[in-house]
Amino acid sequence: MLGAGSGFVRAPSSFPPLPRQARPDMSDTVRNRLWIANEWVDARAGAAFPTHNPATGGLITRVAEARAEDVDDAVQAAREAMGNPEWRRMNPHKRSKLLWKLAEALEANADEVAALETADNGKPYFESRKVDLPSIVENFRYFAGMADKVQGSTIPVSGPFFNYTMREPVGVVGIITPWNFPLSLAAWKVAPALACGNAVVLKPAEQTPLTALRLGELAAEVGFPPGVLNVVPGFGPTAGAALVRHPGVDAIAFTGSTAVGKTVMRDAAETLKKVSLELGGKSPNIVFSDASLKDAVRGASTGIFYGMGEVCAAGSRVLVEQSVYDDFVEQLAARADQMAVGDPMESTTRLGAIVSEEQLDRVMGYVEAGKSDGARLVTGGERTTVNGKGNFVTATVFADVDPGMKIAQEEIFGPVAAVIAFEDVDDAIVKANQTIYGLAAGIWTRDVGKAHRVASEIQAGTVWINTYNQYDSGSPFGGYTQSGFGRDRGWEAALEKYTQVKSVWVALDR
Ligand code: ADP
Questions:
Q1: Ligand 1 geometric centre to CA of 355 (Å)
Q2: Per CATH, is 34-279+483-503 categorized as 3.90.45.10?
Q3: What integer pLDDT is reported at residue 27 of this predicted model?
């Protein structure tokens, strides 16, 4: 999966202090039922599952658990919305206005929504409030601007015919999202899907369902008709699979692990849905000896430690030219040691909680694998708590990593950097591409020719040169190779994913 965020992820010291109201009363904002046809409903079987605050282990609430029959209700609601002239024939300027109003509602409620995200996910509040929320708002504004520009073309065909194309909605879009950027990743798909006139059934990750539910509610408040956006929290193999297999769903937009992505593609084949997959990564961040070492160290640090490394585009393989290797490792380790682990709501915290105990166990398993495979643990790798509670781990740097080691091949989804040495440009390219993934890459050099040559040789959907973790609503993001296919963000990618083309022929001589 990917990392969200708007613009450059700045050095921690430049984040402004948190507002006073950063700890709202959660009881006012937690919504915990299914959101179908603009109404709160219980799951038909009456099931519910707990969602915890990973920083404290405390129960936030129990959330209604959608199963196949509830997913069916949501799909029916979405199909009705597609048949409802109020949505299907809505003036596109009005659709644009609704998306803009949703952006405004998110902006007006940003403190509360960001706090909800942090409570559910464990990420620092400054990340959810100062990076995620502004980016989400911008994303809805961007796609508000697209809603009245979804248009076809006229084609100069031979014969006495007039031929034109129309860009029509695909229909009901099932959106399945992961837990690392819960609202951002939902927004990346919901906004363009609605801009193109589709109806949506959103299945958020079971670890972090709360902000998606709030999004559904806010969409109704600003005037989206019933059934246009439905939210069905539940588990992957039940609710997720039911959505993917449902014959009433026309397209699936998925962000998650590569393993589940393969299952989704298989399950969607039966009904030939249009599928897009944004999957895992093991992105190389390549540092040449002629780079500004200070900038490269900073970029490598944010590349792997931002969002606790629970970022699909995390620069988890740091490839460093041999001649600067030792200096680089020393400086990266020093920066890692400054990544203060703490209460996600504190403004001094740089590393929040890992989303779940299960995920922390996975991360620790990789730390052990790194050690036993012979990599050198330079710093970090310690499981810890804050105030005696929660799932935390210190920022970790492994040096002397061989590209074939497990920690250099598998997506860890934690703050663990694997630093690998390379000899020259050709060696860097070979090592960078020595992966099944192709989501993102970073290149650090002052040599502009080298930068562009390497950028063109790397198998990755996004390449950052002398920067890392840059995102914008207008710039497409997605994978090469086993990081998936289809792009989020950018209007061209949205047209491709959320519309279908109809070609209309008119005889002119009869
Ligand atoms: P992660 O490793 O980030 O948890 P997953 O791929 O396991 O990523 O989960 C991403 C999303 O996919 C979640 O919403 C999860 O519930 C959902 N999911 C998991 N298994 C399936 C499945 N078999 N079919 C559809 N969705 C699934």
A1: 14
A2: no
A3: 64
CA–centroid distance, 43 to ligand 1, in Å, is: 20
Examine the residue annotation and report whether 423 is marked as an active-site residue of this protein: no
- pLDDT tens digits for range 115-141: 999 999 999 999 999 999 999 999 999
Residue from 65, 312, 321, 411 carrying the catalytic annotation: 312
- Residue whose CA lies nearest to ligand 1 atom number 2: 257
Q: Which residues line ligand 1 (CB under 6 A)?
A: 176-179, 203, 205-206, 235-237, 240-241, 244, 256-257, 260, 263-264
> Catalytic residue at 39?
no
Higher local confidence (pLDDT), 28 or 463: 463
Task: Order the strands of the 161-169 sheet from edge to edge.
Answer: 154-155, 161-169, 499-507
pTM of structure: 0.95
Q: Judging by DSSP bridges, how do beta strands 161-169 and 499-507 pair with one another?
A: antiparallel
Quote the Cα angle for 123-128-131, to 5°: 125
Report the CATH fold assignment for 284-472. Answer: Aldehyde Dehydrogenase; Chain A, domain 2 (3.40.309)
The model's pLDDT over 406-462, given as tens digits with 9 standing for 90+, comes to 999 999 999 999 999 999 999 999 999 999 999 999 999 999 999 999 999 999 999
Q: Do residues 54 and 391 make contact, with C-beta atoms less than 8 angstroms apart?
A: yes
Q: How is the chain split into domains, by residue range?
A: 34-279+483-503, 284-472
- Distance from the alpha carbon of residue 223 to the mean position of ligand 1, in angstroms: 30
State the chain's maximal CA–CA distance in angstroms.
82
